[in-house]
Amino acid sequence: MEGNKMDAKYFSSFRQEFVDVGDGVQINALAGGSGREALLLIHGHPETHLIWRFMAEKLAQRYFTVLVDMRGYGDSSKPQGLPDHSNYSKRTMAQDMIRVMAHYGFRQFHAVGHDRGARVLHRLVLDHPETTLSCTLMDILPTYDMYAGTNEEFATKYWHWFFYIQGNGFPEKLLAADPDYFIHYNLNLKVGPAARANFPEEVLQEYTRCFALPGTIHGIAEDYRASAGIDREYDKADVVPHKKIAVPLCAMWGNNGVVGKLWDVKAGWQVYSDRLRAIGIDKCGHFVPEEQPEVVYNELVRFLDDVDRGTI
């Protein structure tokens, strides 16, 4: 598997395995470290666990650290979507994460999610707050709120939210025509010029490899279809009445990205958390852990230390 070459380069102390989470789905996971507490890292679109390449080894010196590819992404299973898209709902994908961590012997853990992974994590802490010691969400606001606040600029820059949800295999067929072009286009659209060097061609080629795997584009489309449908129905019970997140929450975002420019991210999360740390990162677009990895690592460790000390 080509991806293993990248894992050997960036995650040399980690061990890869495929974790069975039920219904024939296997999650590609890498685990490393020996800390008394565990840390789960969940990637975003259209990427894989490789987004954590700048900080995973350092985090593993402090925590038992687990990296995953979500279902539909990377080298994880890509089941055919159900008519209601429920097998790609964030509720189902959150259960995948809980089962992965249980496989490694952890019923409680810290968790960090970027982009789509952050949406899975948001649902996880709403449904199963007892499993999480802390929650770090990168470059999102609640999905329900972002749909409700859609304007022309957001729809233009986040066009893929509305493209992926089209039916009858339409996005699957079009994006399969040139995965390499799409990966490069998506990067150039969202990454600030100062961070381009953090995305060498070998990394983009690994993202392209995974995007081009059979079933990936369908799995990603189902992720977005679920968010536009069944996830919003679930959110009506939690997000609409402003249900609080019970665990310490760190919200990070790129000040130069779409989310940071169009929303007051801190105010948005204050509605849902009484234990919030909000961090806007300068010279940073959407791909927060890859664009400003040192800043993100330092802020994340500071937050986790404060959680352990009980000061947040």
Element layout with pairings:
Elements (H helix, E strand, L loop, with lengths): L2 H8 L4 E8 L2 E8 L5 E5 L13 H4 L4 E5 L21 H14 L5 E6 L1 H12 L4 E7 L4 H6 L3 H6 L1 H5 L6 H7 L2 H12 L10 H12 L3 H13 L1 H6 L13 E6 L3 H5 L2 H6 L5 E6 L6 H4 L1 H17 L3
Parallel strand pairs: 3-4, 3-5, 5-6, 6-7, 7-8
Antiparallel strand pairs: 1-2, 2-4
Helix pairs in contact: 3-4, 9-10
Global Rg: 18 Å
Largest sheet geometry: 8 strands, mixed
Oligomer: single chain
Give the neighbour order of strands across the main sheet: 1-2-4-3-5-6-7-8
- Proportion of helical residues: 40-55%
Please report the number of helical segments.
Answer: 16
Q: What is the N-to-C succession of helices and strands?
A: HEEEHEHEHEHHHHHHHHEHHEHH
Helix/strand structural class: alpha/beta
Strand content: 15-25%
Broad shape: globular
User: Can you count the beta strands?
Assistant: 8
What does the model show?
By secondary structure, this protein is an alpha/beta fold. It is 44% helix and 16% strand. It contains 16 helices and eight strands. It has an eight-stranded mixed sheet with strand order 1-2-4-3-5-6-7-8, sandwiched between helices. Strand 1 and strand 2 form a beta hairpin. The longest helix is centred in the last third of the chain and has 17 residues. The chain is globular, with a radius of gyration of 18 Å. The model has no long low-confidence stretch (mean pLDDT 96).
